Amino acid sequence: MKEALQKLCDDFLVNRDAAKRAFRWDSDYVHPLCANLFCARGKMADEEELRRCRQVINDQTGLFSNFRGNLRPVLAAMLALNDAPEARMEMAQNNYDLLKQEFWGSE
C-alpha cells in the first residue's frame, strides 16, 4: 500500500511539473488539476502533446472564446488524454453551443 501511494505521489509531481513546463504562463493553480487528471487515468503527461492540444483549442476557437480562459490548460489536458483531440474539441464546442441555448455563456 505504501509503495503504491509513493508511486502515485511521484507520478503526480512529474505530471505537475510537465504541466508547468507546457503551460508556463498560465495560473499555477491549474497545474495540480492537470496532474490529477493524468494520475486518475494512470497515465503520464507528455509536454509536447499538451502543447499540441493547447494549439488545437486555439485553432478551433475564436480569440475571445470562453475555451481560451483560465481553464484552457485543463481542457488541453483532457484532450491529451483522448486519442482524437480534434474530434473531442469539436464535440465540446457542439455541447457548449447546446448549453448556451438555455444558459448564459461562461467558462
Would you give an account of this structure?
- With 107 residues, the chain is mainly α.
- The termini are far apart.
- The chain contains five helices and no strands.
- The chain is elongated, with a radius of gyration of 15 Å.
- Helix 2 (31-41) packs parallel to helix 4 (72-80) and helix 3 crosses helix 4 (72-80).
- 66% of the residues lie in helices and 0% in strands.
List the SSEs and their pairings.
Layout: H1 2-22, H2 31-41, H3 47-60, H4 72-80, H5 85-100
Helix pairs in contact: 1-2, 1-3, 2-4, 3-4, 3-5
Summarize the structure.
The protein is mainly alpha-helical.
Which key phrases capture this entry?
107 residues, mainly alpha, 66% helix, 0% strand
Helix/strand/pairing class, anyone?
mainly alpha
The rough form would be described as elongated
| Proportion of helical residues | 55-70%
Number of helices: 5
Give the topology string: H per helix, E per strand: HHHHH
Taking pLDDT < 50 over at least 5 consecutive residues as the criterion, the unreliable ranges are none
Number of strands: 0
**Rg of Cα set:** 15 Å
Average pLDDT value? 93
